[in-house]
Amino acid sequence: MSKHLYIGVDGGQSSTRAVIADEWGRVLAFGTGPACDHITTPNGYERNQAAIHGALEEALANANAIPSEIVAIGMGLTSAPRELNAQPIFEQILREISQPEHIWIDHDAATNLAGASAGAPGVMVIAGSGSIAYGINKNGEEGRA
After folding, report:
1. Which pLDDT score is estimated for 1?
2. Is the dihedral of CA 72, 51, 35, 21 positive or negative?
3. How many helices (H) and strands (E) does the chain have?
4. pTM (2 decimals)?
5. 3-class secondary-structure state, position 7
6. Are residues 54 and 32 in contact, defined by beta-carbon separation less than 8 angstroms?
7. What's residue 71's pLDDT?
8. pLDDT 10s digits, 13-44
9. Is the CB of residue 63 less than 8 Å from the CB of residue 92?
10. Distance between start and end Cα atoms, the chain
11. Potential cystine with 69: which of 3, 14, 77, 106 (Cβ 3.0-4.6 Å)?
């Protein structure tokens, strides 16, 4: 019987983490990889590829799962700002491992706010290896600094 797996990836400037859950939302495994950083810098593709592949492959191994069981992947990446239109590059990196039906990719500030506010409007600040303030209001208007 085939599994239906869902993966979330948090790619930050300190490390990259992946979590695999089943169709009932049960967390099955985690994986880690090196930092995701700016895709446009020299060797940016290769560094992000190593980070994402490393986290995904470790999570799959820890879940005793195979890439064809992945139904959907969502990624929040420090290296995927919308203004760079980098999402197709990251989709290419993902598709080197798996062909999920659904892929969602955005910058990590959006995923951090969604997690912290349970999807409600709000503002948050990330102050780690990189810093950003990001917010979204009840009309869906966004701002960041």
Report:
1. 52
2. positive
3. 3, 8
4. 0.88
5. strand
6. yes
7. 97
8. 889 999 999 999 999 999 999 998 888 889 99
9. no
10. 47
11. 3
| CA triple 106-35-93, angle to 5 deg | 55
Return d(Cα 43, Cα 63) in angstroms, integer: 30
Contacts of 26 (CB under 8 A, 6+ apart): none
Helix, coil or strand: residue 40? coil
Token representation of residue 105:
């990719």
In tens, the pLDDT along 63-110 reads: 999 999 999 999 999 888 777 888 999 999 999 999 999 999 998 888
> Where do we find the tokens 């169709």?
23
**Count of residues in the chain:** 145
Here the tokens at position 122 are 């709000």
- In the prediction, which pLDDT does 25 show? 93
C-alpha distances (whole Å) from 42 to each of 38, 39, 60 are 9, 8, 29
